[in-house]
Structures are given as structure tokens and as C-alpha cells.
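Here is a complete protein record:
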Amino acid sequence: MASYTNIIMDVPLWLWLCFCWLAAACAAPSGPGPAPPLATVERLDLARYSGTWYEIAAFPTWFQKGCTASQATYTPREDGKLAVENRCRRAPEGKIDSARGIAWVPDPAEPGKLKVRFFWPFAADYWVIDLDPDYRFAVVGHPSRGYLWILSREPFMEEATYRAILTRLERQHYDTTRLLRTVQNR
């Protein structure tokens, strides 16, 4: 008989992502009391945001269980949206798993508040809440504060940069003790 863990590991990443985003839409904010609305970046150039981002750390999610070398690639589309491909390796030397979707800015007045869709008709909030002026790192969250990803253009990040991001996240009422560093291949 297959174990529960093996069944979970056999579910495609795109299906986990769909479920995660749907669950995030209903999630309650983390922390002891009500937090103010989550602030996003005031400017976001999708052309500069395009390209590959490596996951440096994230809140643990069941759909990424067993993932290493997680990364996301954003590619401009003719309609102004971004094609999205999330990839990870299942276990250090396991198979590559990927999920494809699209991302877009529903309201140009709030460019940091993107929507992402991996499975029609479900779309979820994908909010850019911290961004390096040179687009060397980005932090993506959800208004519930139940999901969080720290991304970098390189597979590794300097410790001082990481610590500064954590300080800003704590000001945004994130519980940074929940973050787990992502194993990236050298």
C-alpha cells in the first residue's frame, strides 16, 4: 500500500499551487492580533521583473514539500501579462517538477498587487511587498500573510541583505520565524 507521503509527492506541482492559492484566499492573517493591510511596492516594471528568480526562503507549504532548487521564470507576453513557470527538484537528486501559469496587474494604480493563475478559473493574489531598486531581490506575499517567498536573481543571497529583508518583513507584521531557507544547488 502506498504511503500518504508518496501519494502527496506524486501530485503534480501545478495542482498543489492551485490548491495553495485557493486556500490562501481564505486564510487568516498570522500573528497575535489584527495586522494593518499589507503594503506593496509602489512601482513594478514587469519587463525588469521578467527573468528567472531563485527562491532563497519561504514559508513552508505542503505543495512544495520535498522541493529543492525552487525557481520561477517570468516571460513577457504580447498581451502585457507574464507567462510563469515555477520549477523545483523533488528531493536533492529527484525529478524536476514544474507548473505553468500567467501573472498580471489587474489595477495599474496598484502595480505591486498582481494576480497569478495556474489553473483556470482560479486566480490568487501575488503581491510584491519588497523589491530591490536594481531588481536583484524581491519578496512576494499574500494579503493574509499566510504565504511568503524571498526571491533573488542569484541562487544565494548575502546574509546582510537577507537580515535587512527580515527586518522589513517584521515591520509588515510577518512572523519571520516561520521562514525556511531553500536548498539551492551550487
